Amino acid sequence: MDIKVKVNTLLELLRTEQRSTFPQALQFKERAPNRWYDGVPEYLVDIYDWAYVNPKWVAWLDQNMVVRVLLFGNDARLMRIYLDEIQPGMKVWQVAHVYGDLVQRVAARVGPLGRFHLTDITPIQIEHGCNKLAAFPWARVIRANAATYDSGADYDLICSFFLLHEVPEEKKYQIVDHLLECVPPGGKALFIDYHRPAWWQPVRWILKGVNAWLEPFADALWQHEIQDYASCPKAFTWCKRTFFGGTYQVVRAVRNS
Question: What is the C-alpha to C-alpha distance for residues 135 and 42, in angstroms, rounded to an integer?
Answer without folding.
Answer: 33
